[in-house]
Design goal:
Structural class: mainly alpha
Largest sheet: 3 strands, antiparallel
Number of domains: 2
Radius of gyration: 38 Å
Bound molecules: zinc ion
């Protein structure tokens, strides 16, 4: 289900077929650009052009790694599924609004159509040109609104259905992202706890050492003067 929508948005972004590319990008993340070029049967430059377009569109991100043998950078690409669906949803919402407006206009206004070139204009405009087509001079005929209204209504229904499906897909993606985030937070907290525990142990050991040292020093401090005193006492005699 998701693939259909991803293909739709990627095709819109690059202005061409995206079947193979989306299949590949939806498999995993951080895909080597040379592998993408090979799978698409394109040169690396042609491939990069497509990838940059998608990255400008905000639905593809990359990381780069230095090739140790050749010394140049290789880019690894990841498709942002959530962002892709988000952009597609916004586009569909705009499209639906446009269609709804058209639907309402067609119901209250009459339109005229040129039977030769197919140009369609409102009654207001037709009155200005005396019902003659400005393109080919043919007389306009009344446009069949009923059929058009029906077609628009069908389009709106389909788009609304798709929009619901996209919403459901986005929910799934959001949950995946939330889980990932929770995992990261958990790890950070665990690391913090481990570090605290480690510090506690280190402090405890230091304290013990210090106490041992103090005790030793204390014993010496106690013993030495007493010895001296005894010695002095002995000398005095
Ligand atoms: Zn015409």
């Amino acid at each position: 289900m998701q693939l259909k929508f991803l293909k739709q948005i990627v095709e819109e972004a690059i202005g061409g077929p995206a079947e193979e590319l989306v299949n590949l990008l939806s498999e995993k993340k951080d895909i080597n650009e040379f592998l993408i070029a090979k799978r698409l049967n394109l040169t690396i430059n042609q491939t990069r052009n497509i990838l940059y377009k998608l990255s400008h569109f905000g639905i593809l991100s990359s990381i780069r790694k230095k090739d140790k043998r050749k010394g140049w950078y290789i880019y690894f690409w990841t498709l942002d599924t959530f962002r892709s669906l988000e952009i597609l949803r916004a586009k569909m919402q705009t499209e639906i609004e446009k269609l709804k407006h058209e639907f309402a206009t067609k119901q209250i206004q009459r339109f005229y159509k040129c039977p030769i070139c197919g140009t369609e204009i409102s009654e207001e405009e037709a009155l200005i040109t005396d019902f003659l087509c400005t393109e080919c001079g043919e007389v306009y005929v009344l446009s069949d609104n009923v059929q058009q209204i029906h077609a628009i209504s069908k389009k709106i229904t389909k788009l609304t259905k798709d929009l619901e499906l996209i919403g459901a897909e986005m929910q799934i993606e959001q949950e995946k992202l939330d889980k990932k985030l929770a995992k990261i937070i958990k790890k950070v907290q665990k690391d913090k706890k481990d570090k605290r525990l480690k510090n506690t142990i280190i402090r405890k050991r230091l304290k013990q050492k210090l106490e041992r040292d103090n005790k030793k020093a204390g014993n010496n401090a106690f013993k030495q003067p007493s010895k001296k005193i005894i010695n002095k006492k002995k000398k005095k005699r």
